[in-house]
Amino acid sequence: MNIKSDSRKIEKGDTFIALDGVNHHGHEYIEDAIKRGAKRIICTEGNYDVETIYVPNTHEYLVEYLDATYQEELQDIKLIGVTGTNGKTTTCFLIYQALNQLSIPCAYVGTIGFYINGKVKDLTNTTPDVLELYDMILQAKQAGCKYVVMEVSSHALSYQRIGKLKFHYAFFSNLTEDHLDFHKTMENYALAKQKLFYQLEEDHTCFINCDDSYASYFLLEQNHNLTYGTKNSNYKISNIQVDISNTTFQCNGYRYQMKLLGKYNVYNMVCVIALLSVMNFTNEQIKDVIKNLEPPKGRMEVLSFLRGKIVIDYAHTPDAVQQILLTAREIPHQKIYTIVGCGGDRDPLKRPMMGEIATSLSDFVIFTSDNPRTEDPFHILKDITADLQKNNFTVIENRKDAINKGVQMMKKNDILLVLGKGHENYQIIGNTKFDFDDKIVVETKIREICKE
Q1: What SS3 state is found at 67?
Q2: Which of 115, 170, 441, 444 lies at 20 to 30 Å from 227 by C-alpha?
Q3: What stretches of 262-376 show up as alpha helix (H) in DSSP?
Q4: All residues at 6 or more sequence positions from 318 whose CB lies less than 8 Å from its CB, including other chains
Q5: ∠ Cα 119 257 95 (to 5°)
């Protein structure tokens, strides 16, 4: 693909399109693109020494261009889109694994990266920009993939990052408090995610979590809808049992076992069961596949320690933190310690909710920094702790110190939850990304203790 929106990626003969981002104006990089060899510029204004195409809106032009150029080439690759607040990454990663294990080549695009038979690269956004997304789908097709499963975020839908792509299968997981700094209201948030369910192939199927209070927004009359959940549904969940090594449950009366832990992960796995059922796999084939599926990195990732179990998870919304704590409480234990914080420059309304949930369901909590970004981390921590009813917590702003303290506090059969960053291998302080990986910090501290 020789049209690019990042001037740093320009090669001789490429076309540069000046897109406006959240923090940058694409026209600022036109001269850099020309210096790097761009032979053509697509923009809204300005005079340049190379061929220039002027358009009223560069993003709209790009969406139309990509659709017209690649619609026919991509018509035989099927897209699976998953939207919702929590569960997108796990559901997509499970589908990616399941299809490949069943000899149906599938690529994955989402929070933990771009995968074709393993990770190809990391991504900046849950759903990449429309140009990068088309490029990855083309790569997947060239690699022989028949499907691409992707996380579709509310920001991506609001900014048209999925362009005019049409989906063969669409999933709605749930809608809980998140991103209200951007969407302002839960209804706006729901309506943003709803857009996915208007971008469907004629021969499509939608899978809706009917237990969620916002399900009605996604059960659109014109679509072919199937439901899942504990209520009366097409895929009815019952008899969930959790221990430290696996989870068992029933779906439509069939018993399943999976490595993933927790009730919320049953919902994610039932998405896989529903999809494979629609694709006409037998129940025995489905049972054999799902018992071998692994969680993505940093999603309920369990590390064994002589003193107990340490769980690393990406949970960074009130609902996600509540679900993982409820799961931990179902597992035999002495005490539950939780390390958690909130990101800076993001929805401040959820901060007291996170604090209340953590202190209510944990024996002890260490509140620490997540990605403070340009906010004062102590201001974030004050927002979390200001009105808490219980005093079973401490504040340790430095995340490494907080994790070390949590591991050190553990005694036999305790559970430590390290929440908020999961797979991330960085921490954003100010405008700088620093190397930081919760799992590495935990493993380093465990080794220190074992040497004592």
Answers
A1: helix
A2: 115
A3: 263-278, 283-290, 318-330, 351-361
A4: 176, 177, 350, 353, 354, 357
A5: 30
- pLDDT in the model for residue 183: 60
Distance of alpha carbon 402 from the chain centroid = 25
Structure-block tokens of residue 276 = 């494979």
Contact by Cβ (8 Å): 243, 263: no
Place of tokens 């909710």: 353
User: Is pLDDT at 180 greater than 80 in this prediction?
Assistant: no
Q: CA-to-CA distance for 244 and 209, rounded, in angstroms?
A: 26
Q: Look over the chain and give the mean of its residue pLDDT values, rounded to a whole number.
A: 94
Q: What is the pLDDT of residue 177?
A: 61
d(CA 248, CA 34): 59
In three state form, how does the secondary structure of 106-130 look?
Answer: EEEEECCEEEECCEEECCCCCCCCH
User: Is the pLDDT reported for residue 176 higher than 90?
Assistant: no
Asked if residue 1 has pLDDT above 70, the reply is: no
Burial of residue 281 (number of CB atoms within 10 Å: 0-12, 13-18, 19+): middle
Contact yes or no for 393/385 (Cβ under 8 A): yes
Are the beta carbons of 89 and 151 closer than 8 angstroms?
yes
**Segment 193-211 mean pLDDT:** 97
* Whole-prediction pTM: 0.88
pLDDT of 148 higher than 70: yes
Average pLDDT over residues 371-389: 96
User: What H or E segment, with its residue span, contains residue 60?
Assistant: helix 58-70
